[in-house]
Amino acid sequence: MFKVLEIGIGNVSVVPYNPKSFLRIHTIFYNYDNNLALELVIKYTNCTTTVGNSTEENSDFSYPDGTAQCHLTFAITENYTGDIRFYYGLREFYQNNRLYVESRNDVQLLGKLDQVDGCKPLDRVQGTNFTYAPCGFVANSMFNDSFQLVFHGSHGGDIVVPFTTRNMLPDRVKKRKYRNPKPEGNGTLCDAFANTVRPPWWQTDICKLGANVQGIGVGFENIDFMIWMKTAALPHFRKLYRMLDREVDGFRDGLPNGMYTLVINYNYPATWKGAEKSFIITRESWMGPRKEFLAFLYIAVGVFLLLVSILFLGIHIRQRILESRAQA
After folding, report:
1. Distance CA 274, CA 46 (A)
2. Which of 22, 59, 225, 262 is 20 to 30 A distant from 49 in Cα terms?
3. How far apart are CA 37 and CA 42, in angstroms?
4. What is the pLDDT of residue 259?
5. CB 203 within 8 A of CB 61
């Protein structure tokens, strides 16, 4: 056990300290997380479509039309039991850029469509009174690839893996931060969004966002939109796409082992940003998804404290030697 100097006001004392405790914590986190948490990362940035075209040629947004599809087949051989989550991942996508992060108006997302302060230049259509809904760079660059996972059963039948959006976001987030404007009388949601236009990179109006997919919400209350609007702090990030619906027979215990095909509706042109895209299947531990960063952070802190302990130990030994010489 090493000893380090405890420096206070007016006194210096020696107290025992063991930096190996941080290394032990690292080992516990790393081993426990690796034993319980599983993940499968499927990179598909430059996949080839079903008609033989390269997705590198896809430079336009189109939400989601399914005209450019990639089919990627893979095997699951590990025990993906329990609650399974599906994420999409982006690398080299800087949602943490200050101008990008600030280009939004949270009041508008509560249904007050004329509130577009802070969204310039994507606040109003130039020369008109029409506002963008939603406004700003964050909403304009919304991720819009969509996925379907197909399980090839042992008896030759293909089964679509059931996705769900239940419990993906707390109700307080949905109710307090995102609300559609209320139409007047018997009007439709699109009537409520009158005098607004969709962002330049969108291919559908906000009032129709999610209208063709059951259970994901429409407009500002669309689950994919709400998750995208929560910006990431780092340029390499993942966002929750769906969860496994374990109420469906055949998937109550998780994902069965076997062959799968991931069907990708390739709508989001990441290559023009130099970004990379992936689809991630995870079985998470009670600590959440696999976090190697946390484990390596502990080992880095442990090594740092070990070096500091050695330094203070050297100072302590030197002081003792000087005191012995002075007494002699």
Report:
1. 11
2. 225
3. 17
4. 94
5. yes
Give just the sign of the alpha carbon dihedral 168, 173, 178, 184. Answer: positive
Both tokens of 270, joined, read 């990441």
Residues 34, 28: contact at Cβ < 8 Å?
no
58, amino acid identity: N
**What are the tokens at 323?**
């005191």
What distances in angstroms separate CA 66 from CA 49, 86, 148, 286, 300, one per listed residue? Answer: 11, 20, 11, 36, 46
Phi-psi region of 118 (alpha: psi -120 to 50; beta: other; left: phi over 0): left
Dihedral sign for Cα atoms in the order 132, 64, 240, 173:
positive
pLDDT at 50: 81
Q: Provide the 8-state DSSP code for 170.
A: -
Q: How far is CA 206 from the centre of its chain?
A: 22
**Rounded to an integer, what is the distance from CA 50 to the centroid of its chain?**
28
88: which residues sit within 8 A by CB, 6+ positions away?
Answer: 143, 145, 147, 238, 239, 241, 277, 278, 279, 280
Please name which of 166, 186, 170 lies closest in space to residue 178, comparing C-alpha atoms. 170
DSSP code of 204?
Answer: S
pLDDT digits (tens, 9 = 90+) for 30-89: 554 455 678 999 999 888 888 777 676 655 555 445 678 899 999 999 989 999 999 999
Helix/strand/coil for 325: helix
Give the C-alpha separation, 22 to 112, whole Å.
50
Q: Which residues of the chain carry a pLDDT beneath 70?
A: 1-36, 54, 56-66, 270-273, 285-295
CA atoms within 13 A on the CB side of 328: 6
pLDDT of the residue at 153: 83
